[in-house]
Amino acid sequence: MEILPHLSNTFVFRGLQPLQLEQVAQFSSLKKVRKGETIFYDGDSADAFYALAHGRIKVYKLSVNGDEHILHIIQKPGDLFAEAAIYDLETFPANCQALVDSEVIRISKDGFISFILENPKVSLLALAAYSRRIRELVKITEELVFHDVKSRLASHILENRMTKNGQMIYVRNGSKKELAAYLGTIPETLSRALAFLKSKEIISERKRTMTVLDPCRLRTFAD
Amino acid sequence: MEILPHLSNTFVFRGLQPLQLEQVAQFSSLKKVRKGETIFYDGDSADAFYALAHGRIKVYKLSVNGDEHILHIIQKPGDLFAEAAIYDLETFPANCQALVDSEVIRISKDGFISFILENPKVSLLALAAYSRRIRELVKITEELVFHDVKSRLASHILENRMTKNGQMIYVRNGSKKELAAYLGTIPETLSRALAFLKSKEIISERKRTMTVLDPCRLRTFAD
DNA sequence: AAAAATCCTTGACAAAAATCAAAAACTAAA
DNA sequence: TTTAGTTTTTGATTTTTGTCAAGGATTTTT
After folding, report:
1. How far apart, in Å, are the Cα atoms of B11 and each of A103, B8, B124?
2. pLDDT tens per residue, chain B (223 residues)?
């Protein structure tokens, strides 16, 4: 059980005393999930929440005709998911599936609640985590309402870019279908948006790496 | 100072002991705001959060060209707003303005944090409140991605309807412009969506009251 | 390396929604 | 009540996005 190092890497439990971590470990368990495996379904009874140990997890909703909309992709070890369901909901409000072979930590709802009651400082960390998620979601709705696909793509690239020897690059880690779902559109529309940016020589693309050729003009599309 | 009854009506402080309420009152203050008055602007430093005593408040973002998108309308006394900014943000992430003459309770950030640390049970209530907001926002993004304006309108009516002597009615409390912004669209498009539902005799409208003539068919548009 | 499967792109078209402009309906003020 | 103001509706048009279908490209499997 090498669960402790993973726990101390979650931002809710980071900075806890070793003794407190031991307590948390008592109501937590490590679970391996294979690529494509579902961790929980929309509507499943929610008696736990999860932290990512390593891998890639998607949290998504399905529309009546089966289109999926990705609400959240968890890929940073230590990030929590499904916490929203814990406090006042009986069932999970979305589906959750591993995109690659992953390991997740399952943290029991009841265990966590009694732990919080005994360790009030932890609750402030949890509240902060929640408020971050809220702002993330507010950002998403704002993007959806104010901006078209081109500009949502531009923002996304600018917010997730890295710099590699002077070049501004964005490395896509999922499929384009996934990226499209994340941006609230479909692969065809994403493809056209990308084609547009490439035709204007604002970005270039090779494999999973996009290079931003003209950051300035990309920014004008982003807002 | 008739602040105590208002406090005990907020869902974070509901159920608190009189003594605890007194404590909360010490770092809270009642503020009158006139219609149109701004409570805080996007970017203002966030050293407090708010609860509605009575009135109507909008929390909204402005796009670069001045279009407003309403993220949240607070009209239920006791509802919190601007809490997201408290825990890990220095500034408010949106604007906030009174839609009618209102009274709000300003709750100091520092005061609240020390209070939580001494009263861990309250944090569970706060966490529950947060998770509700998260689900609300998830619901909004989902609606925006999956559904067109007609169906967002239909859902909205169905979720906010009341029953008055056998009739299923929806009473609009803001302007249509406000409703349009809330639904993530513009007044013209809302107007057309309404005209459509009226032409099909699914709803009728008189003043600010819409009567649902055919709940069944309205529901088919909602999903 | 060939075959199969999946993913991505492109085109033609249809639908949804935004924009612009103007008229109509409603409200509030003089 | 008349006027002035705002809000709402309607029409014509354009832009954006989705749908469907087909062809390429890429990856995976055998």
Report:
1. 37, 8, 11
2. 588 888 888 877 877 888 888 899 999 999 988 888 889 998 898 889 998 888 888 888 877 666 677 777 787 788 888 877 777 678 888 888 888 888 899 999 999 989 988 888 888 877 887 777 777 888 888 889 889 999 999 999 999 999 988 889 999 988 899 899 999 999 999 999 999 999 999 999 988 899 999 999 999 888 7
| A-chain residues near B67 (CB < 8 A) | 146
Give A73-89 as a DSSP string: EE-STT-EESTHHHHH-
Do the Cβ atoms of B117 and A120 come within 8 Å? yes
Q: How many residues does chain A have?
A: 223
Closest CA to A129 of A4, A39, A13, A29: A13
Specify whether the CB–CB gap between B70 and B13 falls below 8 A.
no
- Is B184–A145 a contact, with Cβ atoms under 8 angstroms apart? yes
Residue of A nearest to B220 (CA): A64
Structural domains for chain B: 3-145 (2.60.120.10), 148-222 (1.10.10.10)
